[in-house]
Amino acid sequence: xxxxxxxxxxxxxxLNAFLHVIGRRADGYHLLQSPFVLIxxxxxxxxxxxxxxxxxxxxxxxxxxxDDLCLRAARALQAASGTALGVDIxxxxxxxxxxxxxxxxxxxxxxxLALNRLWSxxxxxxxxxxVAARLGADVPFFVGGSNAFVEGIGERLxxxxxxxxxxxVLKPAAAIATQDIFTHPALVRDTDPVIxxxxxxxxxxxxxxxxxxxxxxxxxxxxxxxxxxxxGRNDLQAPAVLQCAEVAQALVWLEARxxxxxxxxxxxxVFSRVGASGxxxxxxxxxxxxxxxxxxxxxxxxxxPRHPLGDWAR
Length: 314
Known about the structure:
By secondary structure, the protein is α+β, with helices and mostly antiparallel strands. It has a domain at 5-163: Ribosomal Protein S5, domain 2. 25% of the residues lie in helices and 26% in strands. A hairpin with a 5-residue loop joins β2 and β3 (30-50). α8 packs across α9 (245-258). The protein is globular, with a radius of gyration of 19 Å. The two termini are 22 Å apart. Mean pLDDT is 90; it is low at 203-216.
């Protein structure tokens, strides 16, 4: 029986527990280290197979750019596989734009995972990761299927066991251009590297096969407890605060309520850990929406143990 459609597939967001810039390559790309943590705030996507080879996207709520990452992902997989099939992609966009939460990259990853099944390609995860790496730095993580310690320019993945953690996530109205952050003179580019036992780099040293096409297939490592509780910093936060007053305001707003705050990715969303990791979802003593400026969005979230479609590729 031919599969004709897949409906209501999630594309979850991520938070960067910390984000360190440890260097810069000769080609200008920055070298990063960051634990990426999946959370239960997600876009929802629908896919309907086409037999005419056309690739079309339909925006069910917010309007997306004409040629977004979903269409680019579909086009890349179509070209790489040589399939004559096409697809209609419909998107319920729930994740905010310009947040540093990986929304567009997650949509692209869900597209790759869905079309691998809808087009009956049967590709292994390693082969999908090769396509994902050409689409953007965050896309391989979402294809990888689990929380991960991400290194290099986003292609090196060490799966992490991350304890269930509650977060308050706040997105101010302003958005920040990622390029403006990475070119800002205040950006620190020489943070000392951290070493995770069994990470990509250690596996290289011991001679294991750990190319970017194998990164998400190694056994998961338990995240150090201090990573979960607020180790390190986001090196992109300082230049973001200098460029966008709303990021600074959002950090102070969450700090006052939960005693900690940090920006995720290149911003502008910020988050706080709420209660001890592994405990039930904390209930704030105050209404989080009380006094929130117009256009700001706040949401209580939980970390996810795995990507909801993590078993769709092997």
